[in-house]
Amino acid sequence: MNIRIAIADDHQMVINGIYTMLGDYPKISIIAAYGTGEALLKGLEEETPDVLLLDIQLPDKTGDKLAPVITRTYPEIRILTLTNFDSAFYARNMLYHGALGYLLKSTDRETLIEAIETVYNNKEYIEPAMRHQVAEKNLKMSRAQVQFPTISAREKEILQLLSDGYTTQKIMDTLYLSATTIDNYRSNLLIKFGAANTVALVKKAVQLGIVE
Question: What's the pTM value of the predicted model, to 2 decimals?
Answer without folding.
Answer: 0.66
